[in-house]
């Protein structure tokens, strides 16, 4: 029997006994590698959902890997789902990452084409993407692990489908790991019956992080809301002075399946420009006019780090996918190049170039008024976009952690086209 196999079947007491026979440096490495901290171990009690809300670097992936691997190695024939924010995330982090399943257990075989992992003894896991919550309707599962759920496009729908799939065995269970975002549904989940919550901070795992990681983060962000959320794993709700509040956005949310009937659809675009054009995001937001006169935000197709030709293709894809009749694109920095790039991909695309005469936040203020009057709704959840809206401050302040509110600006252009008159006043009657 190999040492790896021996350790995987041994109790913590047995591992410590083996370590006692080794040199101090060997024992330290061994114990740290195979013994999780208490906060990384499954909590006691008869819970159905284990929710880990913790800062970056806490060891959420290692906790999920250890839990799944233990279940699959010690039970025969269990069926498991591994759900990432995207399929690429599921594979890169949960399976092939440094703390992923393949690194933890070399006995596991992975067939990427089938999205399937197999353990000795017949247990198996399939990979899923939270971008396709409907794909979780079909399987029947014993256990499931969902990673970075705060980034899931429609978290409540995907988690509901996942829970309905947990119908095998006497005690099916769900693990959800994430750095928290201040979504109402996530806060409600954390206090729901049957949910056991583990909280943690980045500094809790300092012994396994690069020496300057925690110190540098604390130096740059210490005391800020970003540090509380990303390092301490806290829910950070609203920023003082922000135009949009979380309650306002939660209150305007409607279902995304099916999408509402739209009588007109536009794609707002805030293209990258200047020295950072290749690294900045291209904001792409799709919005439409509903039959009752309200506007609905239906998609955030923002892309980052692409060449002009490729972000132009992403814009045209959004235009085609939603049968839009107009692309409204800011051309302050790109000039005629923006229109030329789009028409180079599709010569027949309908493009309306616009020039910004005021700052991004100033342009957002009349659009915020539309939300305040109940004239805009969100068809589903758009975490990254909503983060930017909640970081736009009255009087021109920008509280975001990115260089520019590109997503928010694309939304402002789209909704201004749909709902505002020339003077920046609501172009429809308040019902």
How does this model look, in words?
With 431 residues, the chain is an alpha/beta fold. 35% of the residues lie in helices and 19% in strands. β6, α7 and β7 form a beta-alpha-beta unit.
Relative helix content: 25-40%
Ranges where pLDDT stays below 50 over 5 or more residues in a row are 28-33, 422-431
Largest sheet descriptor: 8 strands, mixed
Strand order of the largest sheet: 3-4-5-2-6-7-1-8
Structural topology:
Elements: H1 3-9, H2 12-20, H3 24-34, E1 49-54, H4 60-74, E2 79-84, H5 87-95, H6 101-104, E3 109-111, E4 116-118, E5 124-129, E6 143-147, H7 155-165, E7 173-178, H8 184-190, E8 195-200, H9 213-221, H10 225-230, H11 246-251, E9 253-254, E10 262-270, E11 281-290, E12 295-300, E13 303-304, H12 308-321, E14 326-330, H13 336-345, E15 351-354, H14 360-372, E16 376-379, H15 383-389, H16 406-419
Parallel strand pairs: 1-7, 1-8, 2-5, 2-6, 6-7, 9-16, 10-14, 12-16, 14-15
Antiparallel strand pairs: 3-4, 4-5, 10-11, 11-12, 11-13
Helix pairs in contact: 2-3, 12-13, 14-16
Summarize the structure.
The protein has 431 residues and is an alpha/beta fold. It has helices at residues 3-9, 12-20, 24-34, 60-74, 87-95, 101-104, 155-165, 184-190, 213-221, 225-230, 246-251, 308-321, 336-345, 360-372, 383-389, 406-419, and strands spanning 49-54, 79-84, 109-111, 116-118, 124-129, 143-147, 173-178, 195-200, 253-254, 262-270, 281-290, 295-300, 303-304, 326-330, 351-354, 376-379.
């Amino acid at each position: 029997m190999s040492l790896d196999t021996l350790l995987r079947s041994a109790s913590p007491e047995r591992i410590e006994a083996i370590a006692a026979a080794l040199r101090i440096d060997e024992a330290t490495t061994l114990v740290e590698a195979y013994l999780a901290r208490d906060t990384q171990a499954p909590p006691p009690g008869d819970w159905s959902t284990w929710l880990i809300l913790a800062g970056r670097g806490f060891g959420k992936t290692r906790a999920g890997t250890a839990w799944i691997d233990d279940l699959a190695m010690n039970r025969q024939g269990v069926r498991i789902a591994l759900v990432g924010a995207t399929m690429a995330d599921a594979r890169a982090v949960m399976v092939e990452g440094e703390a992923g399943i393949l690194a933890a257990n070399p006995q596991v075989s992975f067939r990427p084409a089938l999205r399937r992992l197999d353990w000795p003894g017949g247990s198996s896991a399939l990979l899923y993407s939270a971008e396709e919550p409907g794909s979780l309707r079909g399987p029947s599962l014993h256990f499931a692990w969902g990673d970075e759920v705060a980034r899931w496009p429609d978290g409540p729908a995907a988690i509901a489908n996942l829970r309905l799939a947990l119908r095998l065995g006497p005690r099916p269970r769900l693990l959800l790991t994430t750095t928290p975002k201040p979504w109402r549904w996530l806060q409600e989940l954390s206090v729901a019956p049957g949910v056991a919550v583990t909280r943690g901070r980045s500094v809790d795992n300092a012994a396994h992080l690069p020496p300057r990681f925690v110190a540098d983060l604390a130096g740059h962000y210490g005391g800020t809301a970003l540090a509380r959320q990303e390092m301490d794993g806290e829910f950070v709700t609203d920023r003082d002075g922000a135009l949009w509040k979380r309650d306002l956005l939660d209150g305007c949310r409607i279902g995304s399946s099916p999408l509402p009937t739209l009588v007109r659809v536009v794609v707002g675009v805030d293209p990258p420009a200047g020295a950072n054009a290749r690294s900045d995001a291209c904001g792409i937001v799709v919005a439409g006019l509903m039959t009752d006169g309200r506007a609905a935000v239906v998609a955030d197709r923002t892309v980052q780090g692409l060449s002009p030709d490729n972000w132009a293709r992403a814009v045209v894809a959004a235009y085609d996918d939603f049968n839009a009749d107009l692309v409204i694109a800011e051309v302050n920095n790109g000039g005629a190049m923006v229109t030329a790039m789009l028409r180079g991909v599709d010569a027949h695309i309908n493009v309306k170039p616009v020039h910004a005469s005021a700052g991004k936040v100033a342009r957002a203020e009349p659009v915020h008024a539309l939300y305040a009057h109940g004239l805009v709704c969100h068809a589903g959840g758009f975490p990254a976009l909503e983060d930017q809206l909640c970081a736009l401050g009255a009087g021109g302040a920008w509280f975001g952690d990115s260089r520019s509110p590109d997503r928010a600006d694309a939304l402002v252009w789209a909704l201004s086209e749909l709902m505002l008159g020339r003077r920046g006043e609501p172009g429809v009657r308040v019902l």
